[in-house]
């Protein structure tokens, strides 16, 4: 199964949530391949931190080389997380933004040993993203609470209707809220509540019931390896673990 995290707006927690999903699946015993085509490189940095010689390794083993060669062979790196391998990001992706829409599909056909493939994408709409959306069984878009996020989500839906209408018609695309402020949810006049009303009016049939709480635990987990615990004494960390 291929799960892609996609948003045309940066800073919505997309990469952190891609890591959370990948590690959650890996902890359940599934074999996971993390495909990082976000040139921001935060996911690659998380998974490859402290691996000896990694700076030299990612020069020759990365998503650019895999797409150029149309094979995963020789481009997969074993990460510090059990059951998670990664194809690291590369700034050279800018060289192949005109690649065919099925290039990633051809490349991932060699991924026989994985139960899940998690794809982290850049906040742009280009051929790289279309490649990722084309191969996806599930597309997840995190929503943050600002008006620009409404605009970018509208744009993403419009682009997908033009290029990949089957992903919408077959309900492969879902939205969910990040940085959820539970204290503000009870106030109808709060900006969060007003924007939730707009989102649910515009996208009510594809918004999931997952609310990712605004929590420092996300950063701690993806930067320091601090564990998420259901029995945490801090409510927002507990809620994040549950979600």
Structural summary, described in words:
The protein is an alpha/beta fold. It has twelve helices and eight strands. It is globular.
Largest sheet: 8 strands, mixed
Euclidean distance between termini CA atoms? 20 Å
* Overall spatial form: globular
* pLDDT averaged over residues: 92
Radius of gyration: 18 Å
Order of helices and strands: EHEHHHEEHEHEHHEHHEHH
Q: How many individual β-strands?
A: 8
Q: Briefly note the structural class of the backbone.
A: alpha/beta
Topology:
Layout lengths: L1 E4 L8 H14 L4 E6 L4 H7 L5 H7 L2 H7 L7 E2 L5 E4 L15 H6 L7 E6 L5 H9 L2 E6 L3 H17 L1 H5 L3 E8 L1 H4 L5 H13 L3 E7 L2 H9 L10 H8 L1
Parallel strand pairs: 1-5, 1-6, 2-4, 2-5, 6-7, 7-8
Antiparallel strand pairs: 3-4
Helix pairs in contact: 1-11
């Amino acid at each position: 199964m291929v799960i892609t995290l996609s948003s045309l707006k940066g800073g919505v927690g997309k990469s952190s949530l891609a890591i959370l999903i990948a590690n959650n699946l890996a902890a359940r015993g599934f074999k996971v391949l993390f495909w990082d085509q976000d040139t921001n490189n935060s996911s690659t940095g998380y998974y490859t931190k402290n691996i000896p010689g990694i700076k030299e390794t990612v020069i020759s083993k990365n998503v650019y080389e895999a797409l150029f060669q149309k094979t995963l062979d020789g481009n997969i790196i074993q990460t510090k997380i059990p059951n998670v391998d990664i194809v690291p990001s590369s700034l050279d992706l800018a060289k192949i933004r005109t690649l065919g829409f099925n290039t990633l599909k051809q490349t991932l056909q060699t991924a026989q040993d994985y139960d899940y493939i998690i794809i982290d994408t850049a906040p742009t709409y280009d051929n790289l993203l279309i490649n990722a959306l084309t191969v996806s069984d599930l597309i997840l878009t995190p929503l943050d609470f600002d008006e620009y996020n409404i605009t970018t989500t509208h744009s993403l839906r419009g682009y997908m209707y033009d290029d990949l209408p089957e992903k919408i018609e077959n309900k492969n695309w879902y939205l969910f809220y990040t940085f959820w402020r539970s204290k503000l949810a009870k106030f109808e006049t709060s900006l969060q509540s007003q924007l939730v009303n707009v989102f649910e009016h515009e996208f009510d049939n594809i918004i999931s019931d997952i609310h990712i709480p605004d929590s420092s635990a996300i950063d701690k987990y993806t930067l320091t390896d601090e564990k998420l615990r259901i029995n945490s004494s801090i409510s927002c960390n507990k809620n994040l673990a549950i979600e």
